Amino acid sequence: MNIQLKKGLIEVCVLSSLRNEASYGYKIVSDVSNIIEISESTLYPILRRLETGRFLSTFTQDMNGRLRKYYQITPQGIERIEEFKEDWKEMEQVYQYINQKERRI
Amino acid sequence: MTKREFINKLEMRLQQTRLSRYEIKDILNYYDEMISDKMDAGYRENYIIAELGTIDEIVQKIQTSEAMQEDKKIKYESILASEEARNTTVAHQEKQTKSNTWWIVLLCLFPFWIGFAAGAFGILFGIVIALVSLVIVFFSFTIGGIIGLVPAFFCLIHDTATGIYAFGICVVLIGLGLIGGPLSLKLNKVIFQGIKKIFQRLRKKNRKGKGGLHYEN
Question: What sign does the dihedral B48-B53-B59-B60 (CA atoms) show?
């Protein structure tokens, strides 16, 4: 898959994994890797980018004597998912168009 | 490699980059937490660290992402700057035309408004002078009273009645100065701020009247 497209998909997958509840690094990797291939070192820059873009907010919580950073989706993050869904509809139309043209040939 | 060794190596490598101390700390915390969580999930330390890839690969991924963000930021800022420059030019041109029209109208109506303007300026100037004088008067009261205490003291030695009288006058003057001084200063402040606010409102109204910014098509 194209790297940029994959990065975009991972971003939306990460946001979606946080849609119902806040989560932490390891759990996000575990959840998202069921859908799309992702490593821990790939996730960090994505989380940073989403955080700087204010699609995510963070907070820390004590967990068995150590601090764990939690990521929480923001209204902008939810909006980003909705935008992606709209874009996807357009992409589907383009895909169908491409397929139709292929059949005629 | 143990978790501690990995974190130390990563820290040393990150310190060679242009990343800030805050960013380095954030990255180290992320990997520390990730390794600990995986160890809690039952994975072996060695296996987890081997799975993370080499330190150079990790740093490269971070740097590429940071560079992309920086690039996007620069592009976005340059777009904003050019749009702002364009808007400023258009707005400036519109402003110039409108202000020229206003100047012509004002010049034509010169005989009507000059009397009112001079009167208003006179009143304002009078108020300012009166306020400043009030402060000077109270200040002089205090200074005069303090200086007067010296001869009053000598008077008290030679002629007790006159001395007490002079002493009383000095104390009254100092009292008036100490009460009136701060009060007049406060009054000055309030009135000057009021005048400032009136001018600011007039300026704001003037700006609003000139309309918003428009894009050039």
Answer: negative
Q: Residue A75 CB: number of other CB atoms within 10 A?
A: 9
Tell me how far apart the alpha carbons of residues B33 and B41 are, in angstroms, rounded to a whole number.
12
Contact call for residues A14 and A50 (beta carbons, < 8 A): yes
Find chain A residues with C-beta within 8 A of B29's C-beta: 67, 69
Measured CA distances, B89 to B86, B145, B160 (Å): 5, 62, 80
Per residue of chain B (217 residues), give pLDDT as tens: 899 999 999 999 999 998 899 999 999 999 999 999 999 999 999 999 998 989 999 998 888 876 666 555 555 566 666 667 776 667 777 777 777 888 888 888 878 888 888 898 898 888 888 888 888 988 898 898 889 888 888 887 888 888 888 888 888 989 988 888 888 888 888 888 887 888 777 776 665 544 434 333 3
Q: With an 8 Å Cβ cutoff, are A44 and B30 in contact? A: yes
Q: What are the distances in angstroms from CA A90 to CA A8, A36, A82, A94?
A: 16, 22, 13, 6
